[in-house]
């Protein structure tokens, strides 16, 4: 699978990489929002999943200067859905334990994990199950996982 990881915390990136790269998944890293937007807008190869930290620095983009915190995560989610379709699988990693925020992303088809509950050893089965469920719901049975 081709997985875009939008995350700025090094320890979380390492945990995701350990959990998924060892399983032969291709991981693209976006440590800032502007990098994630560039990948979503310009990558022509398929992406199978995005793992998104919703609280990140937007980077040096002037147009993003006011898009801090949760708004930055929402901007990336909206761009992903605009470029990749409403059924594009997005998993949210967050330190925020707030049901209102979780509900916002869950209502948009995301799976939400608290970072403290992110188990590297369980990541790959959860990722595969989530992507398979999203593909099944959208009727996309053309690619393996």
**Biggest sheet features:** 5 strands, parallel
CATH class: Alpha Beta
Order of strands across the widest beta sheet?
Answer: 2-1-3-4-5
The name of the CATH topology is Rossmann fold
Q: What is the multimeric organization of the chains shown?
A: single chain
Structural class: alpha/beta
Proper CATH architecture: 3-Layer(aba) Sandwich
Overall form: globular
CA-based gyration radius: 14 Å
Integer average pLDDT? 81
- Enumerate the spans where pLDDT stays under 50 for 5 or more consecutive residues: 63-67
Q: What is the CA-CA span between the terminal residues? A: 6 Å
Give the strand tally: 5
Write up this protein.
A five-stranded parallel β-sheet has the order 2-1-3-4-5, with helices on both faces. It is built from five helices and five strands, in the order E-H-E-H-E-H-E-H-E-H. The model is unreliable at 63-67 (pLDDT under 50). The chain has one domain (2-137): Rossmann fold (3-Layer(aba) Sandwich). The chain is an alpha/beta fold and 145 residues long. Helix content is 43%, strand content 17%. It starts with a strand and ends in a 7-residue tail after the last helix. Helix 1 links the parallel strand 1 (2-6) and strand 2.
Keywords:
5 helices; globular; alpha/beta; 145 residues; Rossmann fold; five-stranded parallel beta sheet; 5 strands
Which secondary structure elements does this structure contain, and how are they paired or packed?
Layout: E1 2-6, H1 10-20, E2 26-30, H2 33-42, E3 49-53, H3 70-84, E4 90-94, H4 99-106, E5 111-114, H5 120-138
Parallel strand pairs: 1-2, 1-3, 3-4, 4-5
